[in-house]
RNA polymerase sigma factor SigC
Amino acid sequence: MSIVTERAPAHEQAFADWVRPHLPAMARLAARLGPPADRDDIVQEALARAWLKRDRYDGRRGTPSAWLLAITADQARKAGGRHWSRRWFAGPAGPTAVAARADDRLDLERALRRLTVRQRLAVDCHYFVGLSIAETAAVMRCSDGTVKSTLADARAKLRTLLEVSE
């Protein structure tokens, strides 16, 4: 009996069709992890790396999304630094509400910067990109339990930093 393994397609058009559904998540993760001006470059570099490594994709080890997002996270890290998006609290409001949101955003940005690199990656993948625990684990190359623990630690630290009471 042979085991059939899903592989990334080798033909250029098939590969493009295979990655297309994952591009929005790749762009969100690149925007969260890398300098905002470099988002498109990070995604392009991740796609180039994925194309070069397409023969290494193994569907038994994770979803295409998790594999592509892990490559995107690596490329964002290589792009250097963390720059936080200023669009988290977008929406129509008056000047007072905008100023309050700006203060909240700055507090959140400061608090997020104080998380460990591992905690920030878990928070970004799970809360900002919307990945499941399993997908976040695949991106982080760890177990589901480790992701849950890391997220719990990050939430606890953020509560302390932001002085949020339950």
The chain is about 65% helix and 0% strand. The helical segments are 12-19, 23-33, 39-52, 64-79, 95-113, 117-128, 133-140, 144-162.
